[in-house]
Design brief:
- The protein has about 325 residues and is an alpha/beta fold.
- Helix content is about 30%, strand content about 25%.
- Bound molecules: coenzyme A (COA).
- Coenzyme A binds near residues 151, 155, 217 and 250.
Length: about 325
Amino acid sequence: MSIRIAGTGGALPEKKVTNDMIAQMVDTSDEWIRERTGIGSRFVSTGETVASLVARACSLALERAGREAEEVELLLVATCTPEDALPCMACQVQEKIGAKEAVAFDLNAACAGFLFALHTAWAYVESGIYQNALVAGGEVLSKMIDWQDRGTCVLFGDGAGAVLVEKCADGGILSFVQHSDGNRGAVLSCGARPIANPYFTGASQERYVRMDGREVFSFALRQVPAAIEEALAKARLAVEDVDVFVLHQANRRIIEGISRRLGADLEKFPMNLEQVGNTSSAAIPLLLDMLYREGRIRSGQVVVLSGFGAGLTYGACVMRIN
Ligand code: COA
């Protein structure tokens, strides 16, 4: 028993922000950003929320799967940028799309969040608890970015993606691996609402994303190929058997480095980061949605998903499309 993707959806805010627009705010250039990251533009919220973006992506995924919202049994939203602490984003999405029979909750594993949520859905369906799940990743990272910090503000974008997964007898997800390394959390961090009560006298927390870019870069180059090889070995497949690698869209140079380390043709690593930047937990489902709509993911193909991010968290999943 496994799960297959029955439908995908994606949603972006209306406002497109080009590299040139960012170069008017901080000391950077289109040339620098493209050369170091591959990013050309990103979409930034002018009022869209995680819940509104995820709800749009979920409705599209349901429509493409030919399913009604009332049929959804589990609704998972991966996000590290919820607007509200309560209620969770998944419950807000549930209300917006009318998935009134679903059990809904959030999960935060930063840029690996969608992958970890997909694994959670797989575990629920495999164990027979639910028959299907809407799994989404959505972020409004622009509210956590220090727009004066050129080392981070050029990288991230807002958006959401979702997949409807359902139980299947053959194919679908073949293997999964997940890892977390909390010892290295400081290399990519962001404070949330600080402790503020009459008894607390400590210092206030950092409110914006802070990152050691080089550390993140080398972590991704080391751990992602290893996780992909581990997941492929579990599925008794080799790198050569893979048709498409759907990787977290952080940086073109990271993806090129991973393809080299795996010895796999870069053609097999589709990217959309040039248009949307790094959308954290939305990156993998947004790219999946684009690839399904363009017919670049087809029945019978072996597809690898792999994500990595703050935590540090990372993982990989092997699927046979059906
Ligand atoms: N424009 C122009 N110059 C910039 C810049 C920008 N946007 N950001 C940093 N620089 C400068 C630095 O200040 C530094 O200048 P200095 O030499 O005078 O001190 C110089 O460029 C080199 O900085 P460095 O950090 O070594 O650059 P880099 O080649 O490592 O590229 C990143 C920086 C952030 C693009 C790169 O480290 C990266 O992509 N890391 C991974 C980040 C990531 O993907 N995070 C999310 C993971 S989910």
